[in-house]
Design brief:
alpha+beta; 96 residues; single chain
Length: 96
């Protein structure tokens, strides 16, 4: 049971309701750590491919499947912020 909890990084829960508002089905939502693609987990479905570098289940789409450089979204945001700071510094020095 521990392995099942570790291998699934649940992104949320989807509740399917009928016209009266009664919950008729409940699904786990999983989210790819590389592209943030979110999908519904059904009881007959496997969790998906496992990224051994970041330790999370991934969506399995070609752009997120090895061989590729594993960059979880947090790392991508860090790189975007670093790039923005560099551009600000260059712009400041260029204006002098």
């Amino acid at each position: 049971m521990l392995l099942q909890r570790v291998s699934r990084h649940t992104a949320g829960t989807l509740f399917e309701r009928d016209e009266s508002g009664k919950v008729v089905a409940e699904y786990e939502l999983l989210q790819c750590p590389h592209c943030q693609f979110t999908w519904r987990m059904t009881p007959d479905m496997r969790t998906g491919p496992w990224c051994t570098r970041c330790g999370a289940v991934q969506c399995g789409r070609p752009e997120c499947t090895p061989p590729f450089e594993c960059q979880p979204i947090e790392r991508q945001v860090e790189l975007w912020e670093r790039r923005a700071r560099l551009l600000e510094t260059v712009a400041r020095n260029y204006q002098r």
